[in-house]
Amino acid sequence: MLMLSQTKALLTLILIGFLSVPAFAFDTKAKAAYVLDQTTGTILLSKNADTPLPPASMSKLMTIYIALEFIANGNLKLDERLPVSQHAQNYGGSTMFLDTKDRVTVEDLLQGIIVLSGNDASAVIAEALSPDGTETGFAELMTMRAQQMGMTNSVFKNSNGWPTPGHVMSMRDLGYLANRLISDYPDYYGMFAQKEFLFDGRAPANTRNRNPLLGLGIGADGLKTGHTEQAGYGLVGSAKQGDRRVIFVISGLTSSKERAEEAEALVNWAFRQFANKSFGTSGQTIVTAPIWDGASSSVELALDQDLTVAVPISSGQEINFEAIYDAPLQAPIIAGNQYGTLVVKPVGLPEFRVPLVAKSSVEKGGFRSKISVAAKTLLSKIDQRTAGAN
User: Where in the chain is the domain with CATH 2.60.410.10?
Assistant: First the structure.
């Protein structure tokens, strides 16, 4: 229950001893980019990140995510063999060279999508899971599911990113989707680091994973490249070093060489220029919020998880925090439910938000509690006006 209102309480905390020196953003050649420190939720880079753009084969990640959902729900099995339609066989570009005589296991199809970027494999999965048996129907399902997940800048017209008007995703949406794949399906994530897939020996020229970072020793282990003439060269990538994981998305580069160089430079920048620093622990009270019509006149709002932020290591960095909640909150209050948000504002970096939850339950109160809260609210407004007049 997120309660962000026009009435907000402000709490600003300054990290003592840190200098207020803006972070220098990475000067990427990509037309659009998004870099997330997944471990902390800190956004390290955002360039045209919310602009819907042609995602090319990077949109196959949504097909993979839905397939894994079906597997997790017991509605699809890895060893299940799926038929290949004429529509799937007709796809060009990167393929597994499937034909209508084939019945291919779901596991092979997933590897074919991830490693070989098989347009035909994506279509086979799509038709099998589509509400109406068509790839178009599956694309509509992809769009609906993306909206449900919060990817509001994604619209799908097919399962594989084949150039089609209106088929778009934003870099932030792709980064979010990568995060969900890693977090929701860790047992399958290892497939993204697979360097080679020899399917039936029928595609000797298309056996290698196109991800240029795999095997470089920088912790890269996924996820998906993309390229069309309209989209340029792109990559949804992730790398883990020690206890830190970074997710990044780049698009609009001019060549596979430029994509490889830019991706490696971004990963090195993210790990070398930032370090994670703790600013709070789960259960730590951030603010005490007044309650209307409650058995108690206030409740403590606390972090529901440890708060760690990736900060630049080259210089100190000021961090501002803003607690936002309805004032006053309406009883009853349920312990553990979210009643506010802590906005984390690293200077020079995009802000991000973490939930604030009630530390205790507060039941509805009587007439006296209403009068008490009303009086406190009135006094608070009088104090604010007095302070403004000074």
Answer: 278-389
